[in-house]
Amino acid sequence: MNFGPAAARAAWQSYWTAMRYYHRFEVRGLENVERFGPAIIVGYHGRGVAHDMIMLASLLHERSGAEVRAIIHKKVVELPVLGWLPQGLGYVPDDGPELADVFARGESLMITPAGPIEGCRSFRERYKVNWGNRHGYLKLALKYRLPIIPTAGTGVDETYIGLNNGYDWGKRFDASAFAKRIHWPGGFPIWFAFGATGPWPMTLPFPVKIVCHVGKPIYPEADGPVDPSDRKALARLHALVTGTVQRLLDEGRGERSP
Fold first, then answer.
1. How far separated are the first and last CA of the chain, in Å rounded?
2. For 43-89, how does the pLDDT look when each residue is reduced to its tens digit (9 = 90+)?
3. Any idea which of 113-122, 183-192, 222-231 has the lowest mean pLDDT?
4. Which of 116, 134, 223, 230 gives 20 to 30 Å between its CA and that of 143?
């Protein structure tokens, strides 16, 4: 690894260590994920950035040296200024040899199935799991025979105040004549939000306390083999996982410290 990616990795770890103090970060259920071995860690995507999941990965790395990877949107990697992200920060672009190597090394993968659908909503809608029919994480778990570890962060929807539904606005803009005329790459939300020091994204989040709630591992084939092409079986598993994440959110908010 050359100096650039190594420096980026060190800066990334330092930033998120600082953010753990900034948000008075706490994990409940850490034993469900620590030193567990390779797994698919899935979670609710809080406003703007999945703060709780990234800080969880930072904490795991600090405690045991464990590396937790994430899949990054291909459109982001295509931007010249962000092309260093996969190598520098340990992201992988999609399912392929790089991801297979991640699991072979005993590392885990974090996924937020809803992404900007949950992360770029307005302040009117908070803490509601909305993964639709996104079953990709289930197919990965089945393909690599990995458990699924559900997570949910409380405090994450107070980090920024969203003014609009950025995902919907982005979709409408992608379909516009103007976007086609300027060859807009598409796939990006158009979100207007504010944080502690100004408008998104050039702002610090509000310094709210964030608690990451980690549920017990879910084994997709605990009751027998599952065919990844069986939509009904995937739907049942999906309902189990999303229901667990929503429960973690609801229970966590009920006991959250002020």
1. 43
2. 999 999 999 999 999 999 999 888 888 876 655 555 554 555 555 56
3. 183-192
4. 116
Burial class of residue 208, CB neighbours in 10 A (0-12, 13-18, 19+): middle
Q: How far is residue 88's CA from residue 95's CA, in Å, rounded to a whole number?
A: 18
- pLDDT-based confidence at 255, cuts 50/70/90? low
Q: Which residues contact 73 (CB under 8 A, 6 or more apart)?
A: 115, 187
> Under CATH, what is the fold of the domain 3-164+208-255?
Glycerol-3-phosphate (1)-acyltransferase (3.40.1130)
118 or 187, higher pLDDT: 118
The whole-angstrom separation of Cα 134 and Cα 180 is 27
**Annotated domain spans of the chain:** 3-164+208-255
Token look-up 């909305």 returns: 130
pTM equals: 0.90
Nearby residues of 82 by Cβ (< 8 Å), 6 or more positions away: 76
- Binned at pLDDT 50, 70 and 90, residue 1 comes out as very low
